[in-house]
Specification:
By secondary structure, the chain is an all-alpha fold. The chain has 9 helices and no strands. The chain has helices at 3-21, 25-38, 42-54, 58-71, 77-88, 92-104, 112-124, 128-141, 146-159. The protein starts with a helix and ends with a helix. The model has no long low-confidence stretch (mean pLDDT 96).
């Protein structure tokens, strides 16, 4: 594969991401699929999954994340995303192993997300001490992360 083809695939991926951020999900899907056809990457599959999530297609979102993992098992984002989607589907037990793997991934930014999502999974299971520890870990990594701060404050109000 030529460097030009790789570069073009990444350009299309960036265009897809822009369309996704603008809420043009149909266009984002088309562009992600075009990028993947040129050169499949873990990023393109993960972000395609994210787009499917926004469209309410969680099974397809999870499938894309699993494809991303096949391409690059060290890319942490798809593990976190699968965990988050499973929480959304009311399956916190199934989410936890995916989120734990995200926290261990070699290649993953932003690192606070899987800790926050682990906290959400433990909260759903009413495992409050573990949830609190996860939210605190997320805040140690990113002290300005508002969702973790709010979750921790809400948890503390509930428990006390």
């Amino acid at each position: 594969m030529s460097q030009e083809t790789l570069a073009r695939a990444w350009e299309i991926l960036q265009d897809a991401y822009q369309a996704q951020m603008e809420g043009d999900y149909e266009r984002a899907v088309e562009l992600y699929e075009s990028s993947i056809a040129m050169h499949p990457t873990a990023e393109a599959h993960t972000f395609l999954g994210w787009t499917y999530h926004y469209q309410g297609k969680l099974d397809r979102a999870i499938a894309e994340c699993k494809r991303a993992i096949e391409i690059d098992p060290e890319f942490g984002n798809p593990y976190n995303d699968i965990g988050a989607y499973l929480i959304e589907l009311g399956q916190p037990d199934n989410a936890i192993p995916w989120l734990e793997r995200a926290t261990e991934a070699q290649r993953y930014e932003p690192r606070h997300f899987p800790h926050y999502n682990l906290g959400r999974a433990y909260l759903a299971k009413e495992m409050y001490a573990r949830a609190e520890a996860c939210f605190q870990k997320a805040l140690r990594i990113e002290p300005r992360y508002v969702l973790a701060r709010e979750a921790l404050d809400t948890l503390r109000r509930q428990v006390n």
